[in-house]
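Case study: Site-specific integrase.
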Amino acid sequence: MGKAKFILKEPTSKTDTLIYLIFRYQYQRFKYSTGEKINPKFWNTTSQRVKTTKQFTEHPEFNARLDKIQNGINNAFRKLLNDGIQPNNTNLKEALEIELSDNIVKPKKLSLFKFIEDYIEESKLNKSNGTIKVYNTTFTYLKDYAKKYKPIDFESITLEFYNNYLGFLKKHNLSNNTVGKHIKTIKSFMNEATERGHNTNLEFRNKRFKTIREESDSVYLSVDELKKVEKLDLKASPRLEKVRDLFLIGCYTGLRFSDFTQINPENIVSNNTVIEIRTKKTGQRVSIPLHKTVRTILKKYKNKLPKAYTNQTMNDYLKDVISLAGIKEKIETTITKGGKVVKKPISKHKLVSTHTARRSFATNLYLAEVPTISIMKITGHQTERSFLQYIRVSQKENADKLLTHPFFN
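Here is what the predicted structure looks like once written out:
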């Protein structure tokens, strides 16, 4: 007989999260979205049921629904065996939904667009404004496509749709990376809908349904360039001075904009030698040794950094700061827009943004022979491959770095 249990999708969430049924049988694992949601504070992980508490008065009915699902999967599995049918995840799901066909707990059938609309609203509680903006933009393009060509639902997301949609996006003169971001977001929507039991069409997981990506012309600032920025006398322009200081904090901590602009006195620990912070995007706790430049800036502001401008405003002011530092060498950029490759030289200061700080940190530490695994502990990269794609090292810099390797001596 198989073994059933219930788990929470996000056990550490502060808001309601989905409950999944996990059924293990014959060395296989079946996962099913119950359609039920609960705040983890009301969940008993031992009993795998809602706690008996006055704060959640409907716990008897809620647990009864989970009991029904558990009985349903056990009955479905037993009936398949009794009928001489070898259980697999597909026929097990069908048999379970027959058991639950009275619709007491069966997830409500949603259209793709209704699901996306609800998912975006739900995501506002636990995802960044930037992510919500990406979701909304992708949703807008999907609605435009459906209006111009034909209605879209879960079963519409096929390889034929993929090829047609790529053409549609390219007509909007979008860069390859922007197109890729929209495809990636659609796949995220479909994955989430599949996990929740709203979708059974898995063609979006075909290897040909791929996210387009081309290497961006992201730049980094070397240690010498950062020293030029640090030495700038910006007292006559408090706004630029503030932007410069915050940017340097990012360059010497590797933190994202959302994190280095939120450093508080309580994040400075170990006798003012380490920053400890939980990153906003991943929830990861990182510890970063304080660089002397960071210590100087923190001392200047008494460990309480000034309130930052918005990311976009900071990017605008930052270009002025880098220009004043004399960092204006021409960089040849290449971008594919609307299917056409466009090359043009751009002054380096115009390519600098708040994210350049994070790239500069990773690249400068890599060139300084800091072990890759130590850098990844701060940047949060999961694989060395993804990390090496992230850093910016020119062919000459790579050759200079190899000159000190024993193989070349």
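For the exam, be able to explain this: The two ends are 65 Å apart (CA to CA).
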